[in-house]
Amino acid sequence: MRRDFLMRLLALLPLSWGAMNLEATRSPTESGSIMHDQPETNRDTKVASFHVDALIEEQARDANAYLNFFDNKTMSLGLYVLRAGSKDGQSPHARDEVYIITHGKAILDVAGTDHPVSPGSVVFVQRKVVHHFHSIEEDLKVIVFFSKHIPDP
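Structure (tokenized):
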């Protein structure tokens, strides 16, 4: 089931981030602290498109490491930015997530196993699994897809 979710999620990704249009359909953004659940801001949106460069500019103005730019009933999307040499202080989340690295170079430690990441890397992390970025060599910019929490059986 998780594999099916991931495959459907990846099918939603555009072939080119540059082809996306931010102004045409974007709902207002909400930003928050690192990786916390955000209110559902785009609940009834049928389509939303974004441009990574515009999101990076907005995140830089906000000064938080994490910019939540889309949230509906099934998923949320954010931009996570970590500066070279910085520390990633995140803790495990209640939701599955997918990281898509757009800029930078670092290592993602997932449950004690290192995974080098760079632009084009796509990494799935199961909910409640301990993970964090380290050895951040270049400013890291990551699109984060969060599923909505599914209660334990």
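The longest strand covers residues 131-147. The beta strands are 66-71, 75-82, 97-110, 113-117, 122-125, 131-147.
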